[in-house]
Amino acid sequence: MKTESSPTLGLVLAGGLARRMGGGDKALLTIGGVTILDRVLARLKPQCADIILNANGDPARFARFGLPVVADDIPDFAGPLAGILAGLDWVAKHAPEIEWIASVPGDCPFVPRDLVPRLHAARVEAGTLLACAKSGDWRHPVAGLWPVSLRADLRHALMHEGLHKIEIWTARHGIALAEWPDKPVDPFFNVNRPEDLAEAERLLAQHPNC
Question: What is the DSSP string of 96-153?
Fold first, then answer.
């Protein structure tokens, strides 16, 4: 299958509790005067057929972005897999012509501008259904490619097996790695703590095109 014939929906995962940041929405923090979510959307939109946002709580706080906001339907903040399932279910209902979603964390301000095509290229080359990003020595399972065809399997894993760890579930189906260098700026640097926000400001000042 050619990657250019695989229209893909972008899913920004912003449903976490941000405990290490003291609560709130990490995606709405600013770097260089621009919210992280604005930065993520500017990079992801050109790569995708459309974009949706996974977030829990009052969706009105994201109203200015003009995106569908999809909440988890798995209870008790079940983690990123619950957000991915919410995205897969939304696509199946609202955009059945789309067979893939590409997810990115909402706290990742330097997400690659070529993420989606490279994920597709990796899974085609490896002959797998799934792909995720890797930079340096680290895998980034939340920056991944997911086929809508596996949504029933994922729901069963979450609802009936209590399986919440991404890498256990993806290992069942096989997953390809798309690799990026982590220097001078790791494109999957994420803002988990206040000191990470300061580091992101420093990186942006030193590498304004990152």
Answer: TT--EEEEEETT-TT--TTHHHHHHHHHHHHT-SEEEEEETTEEEEEEEEEEGGGHHH
H helix or E strand, kind and range, residue 205: helix 194-206
Overall number of domains in the chain = 1
Output the domain CATH number for residue 182.
Answer: 3.90.550.10
Span 171-205, pLDDT tens digits? 999 999 999 999 999 999 999 999 999 999 999 99
Distance CA(142)–CA(103), nearest Å, equals 6
Angle (CA) 84-133-44 rounded to 5° is 65
> Residues 8-35, buried b or exposed e (16+ Cβ, 10 A)?
bbbbbbbbbebeebeeebbbebebeeeb
**pLDDT tens per residue, range 18-28:** 444 445 689 99
Domain span including residue 175: 3-206
Listed residue (133, 123, 114) closest to 176, CA to CA: 123
For 140-164, how does the pLDDT look when each residue is reduced to its tens digit (9 = 90+)? 999 999 999 999 999 999 999 999 8
Please give the model's pTM, rounded to 2 decimal places: 0.93
What is d(CA 120, CA 124) in angstroms, rounded to the nearest whole number? 6
